[in-house]
Amino acid sequence: MLVKSKIVELADWLFEEEIPDGYVPDKPLVENRISISKDPVHMENFQLSTSGLFILHSKMQFDRPVQVLTEIEGETITSQFIFFKPTDSKLPYGMSRHNIRYIPSVKSIHEVEPGIEYTYFIAVISKEYYLNLIKRDSLLHQQFVHEIEKGEYVSFSEEDLMATYEMQHTITELIESKKKGEIRRLHTESRVVELLMYQFEQYNEKTESNDSLFHEEDVQRLEMARQILEQRIANPPTQKELAAEVLTSESKLRKDFKEYFSVTIHDYLTRVRMEKAKSYLLEDKMTVYEVALLTGYGHQNNFSSAFKKYYGISPGELKM
Amino acid sequence: MLRVEKINYEVNGRKLLKDITFQVRKGEILAILGANGAGKSTLMGVLCGEKKPDSGAVHLNGKALSTYEPAALAKCRALLSQQQQMTLSFKVEEIVLMGRYPHYRNTPKQQDYKIVAETMELCGVSAFAERDFLSLSGGEQQRVHLARILAQIWDNPDALLLLDEPISALDLHYQQKVLAIARALARKGFMVVLIVHDVNFAAMYADRILMLKNGRKLFHGTPVEVLAQKEIYTIFSVESSVIMNPRTLKPYVQLEEMDIDLD
Predict the structure, then answer these.
(1) What are the TM regions of this chain, as residue ranges (chain A) (predicted)?
(2) What is d(CA A280, CA B138) in angstroms, rounded to the nearest whole number?
(3) For A22-74, what is each residue's pLDDT tens digit?
(4) What is the H or E stretch that residue A129 is in?
(5) N or C, which end of chain B has less CB nearby within 10 Å?
(6) What is the pTM for the complete model shown?
(7) Is A90's CB within 8 Å of B260's CB?
């Protein structure tokens, strides 16, 4: 695949990269940081390329409106993010949008305005590499793969979505990683997958949110499941047993529980155990040994490390 | 129980609330946090039945909010709103007695006077009973309104208490006291939903925290779970560090100083 970009009003290409589509074991990963400052453009670019993948992160400002031309040759899937905010804004983040697109070679022109700081992130992934990263038959992108097979330009999400904190964090990690060599490649790959996951997840949440409300029976099941967890922290049922007790399937219970209570079954159990532990320790002045037994952790060490993970301090650090 | 399910609320195509789901159980205090314009008051409006969501449902004690008769609803949910306009001259006690309107037909009963006296005492406004409401300070007026809405649901521990910035005009003592009242009521069985700006008050008094941004529920959990540097930054765009109080096991948020350059 070939990726290149230029400002229509200027002669030189901003960058021009030829990237092999498939994975080549010994092909190194190349990183580049370039700053361009020539009227009317101010750019801080980070580029990363390796077989099947090209990443560009660009902070841009323009003195006057210009047109940016981007050309991609070859079948690619792109994950695109644009963050923009007025140059004089002190806030770290402004507005953002993102999408995943399948682009069977494209030439596109975008107009940009002065007085706005743009941060542009794009991961260009060859079709081959993409289908290798995310299994072809994954439910996450079934429809998308179907569209890709037709060979026509398609966006994963009908409308662009807003970048979440997780996505921004992942992008930052991708850009700022100090890792080198093969580790850098692994790191990059894992972060790209993570980023795509967040994008899929947000899109799926969005489409599912239009679903109808919970059925009354399901709400009763969920409330019952919650009560069971609260009452049996010392010897809680497995998720499978819990599902059987409230007469539903394990997968449905997990999905509904998370959606309804906005916490997973596992994290909910931890929450209840920790809140109980707190009152046992602070109000009832029980010993750590007793509390570990009563909250179902069995061994004191298991309890202490779970406690520390939840509260940030260990039971021994409490001041009575 | 208050059950809020997949609420969406739009005005002129702007999504003020998007896919909000949560529950408040008897005895629980839920604090809603969020920056200005995050949708907190809009959510309160939906919870009290004033605003009808475009989709989704609110159930109060097993019954859809939209199916309540106004008089019946008034007995099981009370709202202290952020803006209270009061231009007519009333005596303080008269205003608090208005909280009992849903409960009597023509003249207040002994029970109504008793409740009014109790809530006025609790909110520290008994001394002003005979005074003109308009002659009070902002903080005193806020406490009178609190006494009024407490009187409204005082004898119904299944009720829902909605407090939209109940302490915004109060001094330190009454800020604490009002939140302590809210907690004491929750311990008697009331459900309390409250909007506060101070994250540390939320950490101290709330059982659960729901953090809104752009009308979306971003974080929802116990104070320990949601009050962390990353979450606080995401919601308020401020730098902070969070320490755990080893006496109470409640998180304490220390804000970093912010600098602004005016040049």
Answers:
(1) none
(2) 42
(3) 766 666 788 888 888 887 888 899 999 888 899 999 988 888 888 888 888 88
(4) helix A127-133
(5) C
(6) 0.70
(7) yes
